[in-house]
Amino acid sequence: MLRRTLATLIAAGLVTSSTAHADLVLPSISQNAKVSQTIGVTELSITYSRPGVKNRTIWGELVPYDQPWRTGANASTMFTTTDDIMVAGQKLPAGTYALVTIPAKSGDWTVAFSKQKDLQATANYDPKQDALRVTAKAAPAESQEWMRLGFENLTPTSTDLTLRWEKLAVAVPIQVEVSEKVLANARKEIAAAKADDWRTPYRAANWAFENNVALPEAKGWLDKSLAISKAHANQNLQARWLMKDGKKSEAIAAAKKAVEAGKAATPPADVTATEKLIADWSAAKP
Questions:
Q1: Separation CA 66–CA 33 (nearest Å)
Q2: pTM for this model (two decimals)
Q3: Do 83 and 104 fall into the same domain?
Q4: Can you give the residue range of the structural domain that contains 105?
């Protein structure tokens, strides 16, 4: 009986040891990384592993020319966009893609966005499953020990998906449609807003005003907001809109009402900027 019990305990110990060993997590030589960037309301992200140079010859040796490369280490590099975008002038539908590159000694790289979900490095890479292929120019760059992928040269509607490694950089331009998507969302949210919600039409109108987009439609949103409630924020926007239309006296009057509404609010609104507008407009020559 004792022997049987001891054997059982040893077996249990062996099982426990085996399980613990299986759960052991060790650091990867090429560390994992994830980068995300929002352009407008579209989120772009890259998940990849970062190999190091380590005194090796990268281009043409470690990474051969004219052969598909998974653009990183350990596993396929994945690129995700939450909306349709333009990549180097061509449409890429929303989705997640394996990023495959084909380096070229000439500097004219091929960059492919593959729909393959079972991509094992590039051993089973099938060009027929590319959602998009573009060409990007490799250029000399500052030394980069650990390969880096990221989003550079940001504007409100664009960015470059950029690879930097060793002394090379490859940039792929991405263009994102912002205005039409925001306007579509604004129309949807305004239509669904509650009867006492003055903020949603105000916020949409303010965005359009600041970006000089769809102004006639946005003016209607502002009017709707003011009809629900005359607050400091929407009356301030009304004043700025009037001034933009060249109606100085009406703009000053609207700004003064905005200040009154702000001071009467609970808690009071910060009306400093509006008071400065009034002072500046009043001092300006006709």
A1: 26
A2: 0.82
A3: yes
A4: 31-175
